[in-house]
Write a structure and sequence with these properties.
180 residues; 3 domains
Length: 180
Amino acid sequence: MKQRKTDDQEILRLLKEGKNQKEIAQHFGVSPVAIHKRLKRLTLPPPPESLQKLTKKEQKFCIAIAQGKTQTQAAMDSYDVTSRESAKSLSSQLMAKEEIQMSISELMDYVGIDKPYRIRRLKQIIDSADLNIAHKGLDMSFKLDGSYAAEKHLHGVVPLDEIIRKIHMDILGNKEEDQD
């Protein structure tokens, strides 16, 4: 029996009529898995508009980043680079573009990895009983919120004994207020 190619409009029409995937598959002479995959593609919302404005190579780079690849690896997979160093340089240039950043962010939202989801997952990592994992999570959170940025650091050095004395005074001050 020769298999017929499926027709997207016909699949959707049969689905509206109440046919299940197995019945639709029989109608076209294909496997239910083939219909399931096709329906999954048909019912997904269109990809982010910002992604469609990029070149094919930029799109491939953004998709690789959204899949979890490093920026350097994404550049190596998307562009014809001669070395890791050139891929690293190219990825920095790409990530500096506002439209690339927006596309990556929208892609993350598109696949369900929006900012609240990432924050919840990061919190789970930080709360891990394994201290190595927890420390890695804290490090990631500091990088994400810019805590490591040079402008956020104090330029002076405060002696440790001065900090301890201030904490001690705060504690004693609170105890004296509690006794009043």
